[in-house]
Amino acid sequence: MFTSNDYKKGQPRWCPGCGDHFFLASLHKAMAEIGVAPSQTAVISGIGCSSRLPHYMATYGMNTIHGRAAAIATGTKIANPNLTVWQVSGDGDGLAIGGNHFIHANRRNINLNMILLNNRIYGLTKGQYSPTSPRGFVSKSSPYGTVEDPFRPAELCFGARGHFFARAVATDAPGTVEVLKAAYEHKGASVCEILQNCVIFNNGTHDAVYDKAGRTKNAIYLKHGEKMLFGENNEYGIVQDGFGVKAVKLGEDDYTEADILIHDAKCEDNTLQLKLAEMEWPIALGVIRDVEAPTYDDSVTAQIEEVKAKKKYHNFAELLETNDIWEVK
Amino acid sequence: MEIKEKKSVVVRFSGDSGDGMQLAGNIFSTVSATVGNSISTFPDYPADIRAPQGSLTGVSGFQVHIGAEQVYTPGDLCDVLVAMNAAALKTQYRYAKPDAAIIIDTDSFGPKDLEKAQFKTEDYLGEMGIDPDRVIACPLTTMVKDCLSDSGMDVKSMLKCRNMFALGLVCWLFDRDLDVAFNFLKEKFAKKPGIAEANIKVIQAGYDYGHNTHSSVANVYRIETKNKVPGRYMDITGNKATAYGFIAAAEKAGLKLYLGSYPITPATDVLHELSKHKSLGVVTVQCEDEIAGCASAVGASFAGALAVTSTSGPGICLKSEAMNLAVIMELPLVVLDVQRGGPATGLPTKSEQTDLLQALFGRNGESPMPVIAASSPTDCFDAAYAAAKMALEHMTPVILMTDAFVANGSGAFKLPNLADYPAINPPYVPEELKGSWTPYMRNAEGVRYWAVPGREGFEHILGGLEKDDKTGAISTNPENHDLMTRKRQAKIDAIPVPDLEVLGDKDDAELLIVGFGGTYGHLHAAMDEMRAQGKKVALAHFKFINPLPKNTAEVLKKYPKVVVAEQNMGQLAGWLRMKVDGFVPMQFNQVKGQPFVVNELVANFTKLVKS
Prior knowledge:
The complex is a heterodimer. Chain A contains eleven helices and 14 strands. Chain A is an alpha/beta fold. Chain A has a domain at 4-210: 3-Layer(aba) Sandwich (Rossmann fold), CATH 3.40.50.970. In chain A, the strands form three sheets. Chain A has an eight-stranded mixed sheet with strand order 2-1-3-4-8-7-13-9, with helices on both faces. Chain B has four domains: 2-223, 3-Layer(aba) Sandwich (Pyruvate-ferredoxin Oxidoreductase, domain 3); 235-420, Rossmann fold (3-Layer(aba) Sandwich), CATH 3.40.50.970; 431-496, no CATH class; 502-610, Rossmann fold. Helix content of chain B is 37%, strand content 21%. Chain B contains 21 helices and 23 strands. Chain B has an eight-stranded mixed sheet, with helices on both faces. The radius of gyration of chain B is 27 Å and the shape is globular. The chains are: A alpha/beta, B alpha/beta. Strand 2 of chain A pairs parallel with strand 17 (461-463) of chain B, so a sheet runs across the interface.
């Protein structure tokens, strides 16, 4: 059995207070609880502050090039499906320069655990807006505010036919460990959006849910099969509202507990899961979608076995014999 | 009837894209190869997917060169032109020698056909200045229909056999034994014996027609066979040979073969070929883009596979970032560049050698990478094997360059025996280094050890940031970066490659011809022609371009005149000038997207000898 220490290496060089520190500790803890040996684990990142993460892992890993982590991790997983592969990117790495690989890894449903550390800013290049920064966001590269709308990661994941999406706040260790373990358990591409604060360039971006008190007030922990209740005394709940969902206070406007929706992360149809993921109040945390589907890596292996059984040639010499051959004497 | 003894002949089959010219050409080359003739083929496809029937843009050609002795190219101009319709005659006649025999299907020269082919009158031969005595004009379509009238086939199916009538006629012209063709068809259509039978019947009819009707007007050619190399052979295109080379190398190394690729002309056939062979455990992933093709291959290499990515020049532009990652992480990777005309989208179906400097230098930073160029369709096999071996044993990405000409062309491939090929031994980290090993520890050849994930005790992190030579941790130390840069360069420089071979008049040549890659056949043929004219000429052809063979300077400086001939503006010449002090060659450069023409080479080189 393993402990967190078995996955730890080196001294992280993120800024003091950076959300990445919190996340890293939760990842170590989750890996220990999952129990896959460091030698059977690969952590693959792109470029950015959060992509430094593999250097603090005692596993196999690569800190690669900007945006390509998902594509590189794809090759690693397919070449050796026995490895447990974690792919770590920030919002710039994963959704801007790496957006194409992000959607295709989801579409193919490769068995990767994809971590998206979302601080809504470019930190390593010192403070430019990212594809998750809200419209009007003022940064060094948008001194008068951005004039573009952000991606909503869940929407992108679902649009790419993603089968797993979960969300946690970096400072919330139990919540983070829980979604990481669920991502590992899920066979296929699992996206975990980690809300993470950049203390230097975008401090406070997740303030509403960054501490426990805030989460009690402003977040809902979704659990499959359970009623969607939240608040200090579960006095609020989520109900269907026309084509959408909304938060209501029990007892107000005649809403009773019977009206509250039960979370179904396993539902194939992602319509309501998307509505939950996009709520601005409360912010949905936990496993929002977790649906079984054939994985790419399993299908590749299965197809090879199927063709091996069917075809009569299994080495190079036999392959040559499948051609039209003539003999010169 | 006159029987002409010839050293070699060139036959060009041409017709609509759907006329089956490639099949007819393939069977003819196989029939010839079986009697021991040397063969070289080249298809000439239209750029359109399916141009209108009978139109000028819809004509496709397939050229076969057969010889008593070694033939090096598909030939400049043909001795026999088969034109299945008016458009084919119109567009393909320029590839015929002045005294070429021309076979036409008169049934496809009706008023509408002539109009589509933009003839102005019904006298199409006169319009093109073709001597009718050279033309074997036969109502080919009618005869095919007659021949198959009681076969129960519908007309459409019957017409698909037209190519076989032409083939039968050509086989008669060259005095070929039809049995080989029959066997070929029986095997090809093993599951459809009716089709095999119909095709065989039509070939025989074509042969008999030639024998009975034209014995008084045409020549029969005889190609004797000299210098036969006994053995078992198959016809292989360059792209297929490349794919086979990777398969062979993976098997020899005991590794899974991984191809990450994105479709691009003219490289896609490598993806097609490898995708077929799942029974050999080959994994092919058609990625979302060129970038992912290369990036996923880097990931697969990290995981311990023989990783390959295949593309053409525009794809290299996109892959260069991930190629560079493989350089700094020192992971094995083969990058196949099947060159086409550039820049940008350029001439997608045509052939050039314009990516050489891109291969050598097209990356940021000091980024040395070995470059190997295949010289012929069959050489693609050895070149691919060599590239894989070099990548795996020296822990480096290697660029394998071919081009549209060698990739699509074919030649007789003597079946290789894998036991004769050198072993491939990647530098796996020895178990006894557990505990003391760090990721950039090197063996005696300066090569980083390979620790494949899954091995306990060798967990490590690689990456695109510079690393400390000793610890493998991220380092911006100036001395360390300088050291690592030099170590990466020294590792590539130390890779052993075979000496440069000089062919022809190696002791007393007045002119040394220098080339690389796919022009080998044409340069060799030009040298042979000049030597036959009594000139002293030699050829040095580069297959290993980085690192260069050790005797490069010695060879290049030995001869009074040197011409570097290449299908670009002088990229190899520039590279050699950079690497060989005081070397200033003459240059012959052509960037037409077409193979060199041997006669033009001879004319130009002859001028150089005289100047």
